[in-house]
Specification:
Oligomer: single chain
Number of helices: 14
Number of strands: 0
Largest sheet: none
Order of helices and strands: HHHHHHHHHHHHHH
Shape: elongated
Length: 353
Amino acid sequence: SKLNMSVTPELKTMEVLMFTRQMALLLESGTDVVTSLELLEAQSENKALKKILHEVVADVRSGQPLSEALSHHKRVFSPLYYRLVSVGERTGTLEVVLRRAADYIERAYVTRKSVKNALTYPMVVILVAIAVIVIMVTYVLPAFVGLYESFEAELPLPTRMLLGFTRWSQVYGKFVGIGVLAAVVAVFLYTRTPTGSMQWARFMLTMPRIGRINLLNELSACCRSLSLLYGSGLPLPEAMTLIVQGTNNKAMRQAYSDLQQAMIAGAGLSAPMKRNSLFLPLMVQMTAVGEQTGNLDHTLTTVAESYEAESDDKTKAMIAMLTPALTIVIGGIVGFIAVSMLSAMYSIFGQAF
């Protein structure tokens, strides 16, 4: 069955979070799985989730484990989620696993939302600035070009520069637009090739400023997931399979896959990490400590918290630097246009009278 496409990602995440927390509470209070699911289905206000829970109840009643019933709805419950539920069923700690899963979902959601909120203002400023400049160059300035030329007066340098740019954009603007669009399409098509997609993935992790933030987010998600899976009782090689499936970055997927192969060969976790520069020193050192002390899930949680804090600080610092820089650039462009037009008027009136 498919999830109703009208459900937004934010709503879906919060619905899954609330379902997970409530399911854990009901199980902790001694309610059995089927009764818990039926109670949550009855009280759910989201039609899509209600329909899914109805199908999950039917599957569980027919004899399927809860994890298998959830796995039929991959658009809502990720492989990591239903594998965790499977571990909880095997170990008899389903309510504990669900509580951990809810904490994991909430942290991931809060992190994503904070980054999204931080980027909203600069993006709005950029879009408004582009719209204003396009409107001025396309509609406002061409009207003044004819006006200024009709006076045949000597115009100031800023005005001549602005009029020259306006004429040039009228003649060549379309070609520049087509060229930029062609370049974007060419880059996009190249990133769909095996070599191009790997280079793009590595670039997204190594580019100045943003690359470090992307890498920190990838590694913190990996540490959180590994801590959650391993701490719930899933063997590390199996946990790494879910980590490999869970990332969208091809370079990280390759790094995790290599790490998994080395683990299966008996090399442990921290030793093969050292051989790949994508795994940062703190993660390697803390993983080694966790392996030596048998406390790997706690040390990985510590690394995740450290990387999340660093990523948050770097994101806020970048936004704090970007916002005034954008304001200065946009103010400079608009100010130059205003000065050019006003100085031309003063010049024309001065020469006419």
